[in-house]
Amino acid sequence: MKQLFIIATLLCFVACKDAETKEVKPSEAETEQESVKVELYKFDGGQVTANKLSLFSEGDKYKGESKTLADGFYLIKHPKGILLWDTGLPENLVGNEPYTTPDGGFTITRKDSIVNQLATVNVTPEDVNYIAFSHIHFDHTGAANHFKNSEWLVQDSEYKFANGDSIKGNSFYAPASFSELKKVVQLSGDHDVFGDGTVIIKNMPGHTIGHQVLMVSLPETGNVLLSGDMYHFEQNREESVVPQFNYSIPQSKKSIAEFEEFAKQNNAKVIIQHDAKDFSEMPAVLN
Fold it and tell me: Which residues does the UniProt record annotate as the domain Metallo-beta-lactamase (predicted)?
């Protein structure tokens, strides 16, 4: 009987040690992601005053209203390189009076160049390994040609549109503003920029044919989701309003649903890039 008791005790000890060994631990990918030092910087790419805010809905929802929108661009520093997300309005606006489009729809202005602003964080155009736009509307590609040595991460559908006939004469686009980008990496969906899950480009078409958003996982702040032009201001998001000038309204609505689900799953803080309040309240750097 005593021998049986000793055997049972030994078996219990072994089982307990085995349970300790099999204790659930974070995956290697999660551990690596938490340890990576990533920083997200915001910069001012100008302002857009929507003089005819009704353009930002399918009907006359905002008829007679106007709104000033931010036009930020963002820099992500990662141990494996630097990504630039958007570049703001055309730089020929710097030092000049605000410009109003011929149809009176928009008034645009920009105070400073991209090179000057990046210099404040000790970055030159040559330091930027990757450049990506949420989409290729002129207010996001205005300073792109400074980065001709960077790899351009673009959805294949967006790149084909940029080199096709449909873009010609369309006032929302300025192909000359990104014509120097020759190191093209065509994407066909989501893309893990640095291969460790910390900086993810999500394909969210609708606003343009190859519109995309960006999630950055920061060690202290957590997940931050840059919206591109999924929305232009908070009321758009609250009411899931789609601008009438989007490339595809049905696709936009599908992407909105996917965007919100993705944000929820990742407990991500959403930054609406054109929302003046979101832009002003966001710190100059997040880590």
Answer: 70-274
User: pLDDT-derived band of residue 248, with 50, 70 and 90 as boundaries?
Assistant: very high
133 in Cβ contact with 154 (< 8 Å): yes
**Residue 242 carries which DSSP code?**
-
| Domain ranges, ordered by start, for the chain | 32-286
Arithmetic mean of pLDDT, 251-280: 98
Query: What tens digit of pLDDT does each residue of 170-197 get?
Result: 999 999 999 999 999 999 999 999 999 9
Give the angle subtended at the CA of 49 by the CAs of 91 and 168, to the nearest 5°. 60
The average pLDDT across 66-91 equals: 98
Residue from 214, 222, 220, 150 nearest 185 by CA? 150
Residues 6+ apart with CB under 8 A from 139: 45, 46, 48, 71, 88, 89, 108
Place of tokens 């120097």: 180
DSSP 43-97: EEEEEEEES-GGGGSSSSTTTT--EEEEEEEEEEEETTEEEEE---S-GGGTTS-
Alpha helices, DSSP H, located in 129-282: 156-162, 234-239, 249-265, 276-281
Local structure of residue 241 (DSSP, 8 states) = -
As a whole number of angstroms, the distance between CA 40 and CA 122 comes to 14
For 220-259, letters b (16+ CB in 10 Å) and e give ebebbbbbbbbbbbebbbeeebbbeebbbeebbeebbebb
Task: Report the CATH number of the 32-286 domain.
Answer: 3.60.15.10
- How far apart CA 129 and CA 126 sit, in angstroms, is 8
Burial of 67 (0-12, 13-18, 19+ CB in 10 A): middle
